[in-house]
Batch of 3 targets.
Target 1
Amino acid sequence: MMTVRFVAAVVAALAAGGGCVSAPERRDQSASEEEECIGHLRAIYEAIQAYRKGHQDLPGFLSDLVPAYLPNADSLVCPVHRRTGVDQLYQLDDPHIYTSYTYEFSARPVPTNIWGGSRMTMKAWRQRTMGVLGGGTPIVRCHLHKHVINMSFDGEVYFSDTNWDRLPRFDEKASRSDYRPDP
């Protein structure tokens, strides 16, 4: 399990190395907001795992977790959103409850702003992606920091830009066309 000190060191290293380009309103945040956000992603991940155990499937939306698996719906809102009112959901908003996190395995069709869209659901597409790139595929993401915070299907937190699959650990495994959603 990552310690707060480790997370702060990773955040500082990313910032020192240029990190990812982000909107100006997100640049003045504190490390504590990232730590809180990571805590939310961990709580969401644990709730998804409990849901999977009880239903033998993933939830269609993060709202399916509230209140039985995620009693505190505040965990679905990033502290940066609470401070700024900004969100970046890429048309992956939950139809039943506000969340500032993108759930990559949702029941929504792949939206047009992602690879031109598809009738294929995000869940079906991400399952295909996992078949090619493995369990590092994000299950929940936050786009409100200097870099995107990803919670992987396997429970790992890592940082990237919007295109997480272009990190060397994934980019070397396959061509992006190998897991592109069907039109």
Target 2
Amino acid sequence: MLLFLFFGIMTIVRVIRFPKLAARTFHDFGQTSYIGAVPITIDTILVGILIFYHQHPSAVWAAYGLWWVAVALSIFVGCAVVFATYVWHAPVKLNEVTGV
């Protein structure tokens, strides 16, 4: 969880300090697809919280709140990646599509 928070904060700082670099991230098809890893990481943290701390009601409520954050991020990422793909990217050939 601490590593996720650290790298999340570092990503936010990078977007604030270098906005042109963040804009270029959305223009690359492969990098745009990796943005979906953030909600998946939150889900992994949720499973860890529920496995190890399920006896604490506050941990269960924290997991419930994180679950809603993951749901909101999943919806946002799903819509943003599709929007970015159709608006900013050149037509992608089938041999250029990755497993991401």
Target 3
Amino acid sequence: MRLPNRMMPHGGLVAYEVATGQTGRGKAVSAPVVPERANIQERRRLVKGSAAEVVSNATVWLDPEHNVPVGSKVTIWRGTPRERVTEVLQTAYWEQGPGLPEHVELLCT
């Protein structure tokens, strides 16, 4: 089951490029994907990882069919004056149980 449309008002304002590995010129990424439904929440919070603590400035919710691994590039507020490119720090898949909504959550720089 997907989140209701009212909770995903930012369709078209997010694009992501999946990290596919490394090249001699840096990180290799896929072609951009623009989800039809998304939710962007900007707020600063501390993300504790195994090696370091990093500040996350944005959280993006997507439908569960999107698989966006850590290190992928995400453009938020695409096509607006607030547009910026971020990187995925953490990702989570939320499945609440039978008959309840599920989604992917991306914590971004």
